[in-house]
Amino acid sequence: MKAITYHKSKSLLLRKITLLCCLTVFFSGLSAQQVEILGNAKVTGQLEIMDTILFSDGSALASACLQILADADSDTKIQVERFPDEDLIRLTSNGKEVMIIDERRLRLIHNTNSIFIGSSTGKNDDGGNANLFIGNEAGAENTNGARNTYIGHDAGTSNINGFHNTYIGSGAGANGQGGQNTFIGFRTGQDNSGEYNTLIGANAGGQSSGNKNVFIGTNAGYTSTESGMLIIDNRDRESPFIYGNFSNNTLDFDANVKVKRDLNVENEITIADASAYRGLKLGFGEEALFGIVGQKITLPSNPPINLEWMHFGVSNEGDFSPALSLNKFGSIGVGTLTPQTKFDVVSSNPIGHIMKIENTAPGIEGDGLEIKLNRPNNGAGNNFITFNDQDGVAGRIEGFSITEDISMASFPEIDFTDYFDIVSIQNLVFDRGSLPSLSGGQLPYLSGGSFPNFNPGQFPIFNAGTPASLNNGSVGSFSLDFNGDAFIQNLLCGPFCPTPPVDFYTFEWTGFSFPTLNPGNLPYISGGQLPSLSGGSFPTLNPGQLPTLSGGRLPYLDFDIFFDPTPIAGAFTDLKEVMCWALENGERSLITTNPQDIALLKDQAFLNNLADCKNGGVTYGSGGADYAEYLLREDINEHIEDGQIVGVKGGKITKVTEGAEQLLVISMMPIVLGNMPSDTLSLDQYEKVAFLGQAPVWVVGKVRSGDYIIPSGRHDGYGLAVAPEELKLEHVSTIVGRAWSDGDQSVNLVNMIIGLKTNEMATILSRTSAKVDALENRMAQIETVLGINETAEN
Fold first, then answer.
1. Across 161-267, where does the E strand assignment appear?
2. pLDDT tens-digit series, residues 48-63
3. pTM score of the predicted model
4. Which of 39, 166, 436, 696 sits 20 to 30 Å CA-CA off 649?
């Protein structure tokens, strides 16, 4: 059936109420219809309502209709308007009124004081224990437990006698038997039978067994067997994120702790337990210890403490190892109790660096380390960075200053006004002079002479001679007589033939003679005459006359205004003092006899201008002597040693130098190393290749300083020395560098300059030019000789 609508003038019920009563009536012919009764209706028999009864504003039929919905014996019913205008809904079950609903609340009035909502919820409870169970199977096995609150499917389902528990969440405390616990979350404390526990989070303390614990977080303390603990984490692990012990009031953090506000300590600071040998060391002076290392440190507030040192570190069975030290002067020591500088880092770590400075800012303007020396011009005495090894200073980055080493305090006291006034130079009178003139003179010329006469001569006469000839000889005559019977006899007689066999032929040749050779006559030449020159004479050379140079005037500077050329008494002594001062102060370049140069050294304005232009840079000092770069080996498996010569091919190196684009050497001690690979794991595939400077190189055979170094040609990384006088044009393209030291062994490691101009082309061209000059001189001599011979013939 569809809904049956009644009109009701009261506003007590403003929504649909589904009635599940046992009134059954069958209206034939009204199936799947909506019945609306606007007037009085009387039902005799049973009425079955399949949907809902709707009450709305209308007539007052409701006051006389459906005030009680009851079962057959009326001990279970829903009743309204027990008293006039009561406006309550009463629910009675088995003769006991169990619930009243008014406009503001739902009241349970059963005298057991328990509320059970859900299938099998509190099914074994007699209802007199003041329990609240909501959810299927919640508190299902509870018998004597009192004042429990179980909310959720299976919450506290197996707890029989527990009391004062609060379980919220499906399966919370499902299998436990403890009391006075608070479990919040899915299966929180599911198997816990302890007491006074507070567990919050899914599966928190799920299989724990202790008492008086506080576990917060998913799976926090899931398998813990301890009692009196605080665990805050999102997983079950041996070292929780936050771990506390209520029995000794300790709290451990497995995390970096940041305090954004003041941290006020009224009593004690516990740094670590004694067994861990960790702690904080505060002391007066270097050795004093304030507090107890490894246990507790008390900071008294009266009187105030003026600490000279604060040491932070760890102790290994009483042997204190410093990590950080601070003193009242602001010095910081890392790994040392006695920092020698404002910031002193000491480490015995055999692997890796001891300090790292990193700027993680993503911007392109992020900087790294800044070093500032607060003086106007930093000189060589100002070391920005110093590199030391066991033997002392290995290198440094220092300042430089043009004038820093020139101390004028000890400069000789000389009165330069006795010699000149340097300011008066602007008043000098300068006469530019005039150019001289040339007159007269005559160029050289040739006069006289005549060409020689040419006699063409006469061709010789050729006689052809007579050819050789042969005189006829004679062939003669011959005869052959053949005996057939004898021939057959010899063939058939076999082993019985006579010895010697019977002759079966006869040959005869007579009258033969050879021809005779007639040699004839050879051709020959006779007569004739060679051509010749006769007569003629050389011209006469008239040397001419040089022009006459006259007039003109040299430029003239009038020194009388500022310089007295008269010898000054004591001038030699003044000069001697200046030279001695220059030698004593390491300024040999200042040894000069020019008084103007010396006077400039006393001019402070000159020195200041010089400093403004030249001062203020840094110098890199190191035992390393070359600029090198990382280059990848062409064959990453090729073995290459320091000091060996390599060829560069397409940016990769190999000891095979044939066809190389450039020849370089593996650096042993670069001062600057560039092109470092971004992937440091692949550094073993690279070599440090020297590009510029001084680099040791392996050379086979004797070497002299100044020799050119070329590859051996065997692709073994070794070089050969070529003396300058033996250098050839074919050597130029294979020059690696030039030796700056000697070597007399079969294999030598010598110092070589690489990447700088070695003037090898100038050496070859100079030697070639000398040879050309020698050839020209010889040609001139030959031409002279030929000229003399020609003159002689004339």
1. 166-168, 182-184, 198-200, 214-216, 229-232, 242-245, 250-253
2. 555 445 544 443 334 3
3. 0.36
4. 696
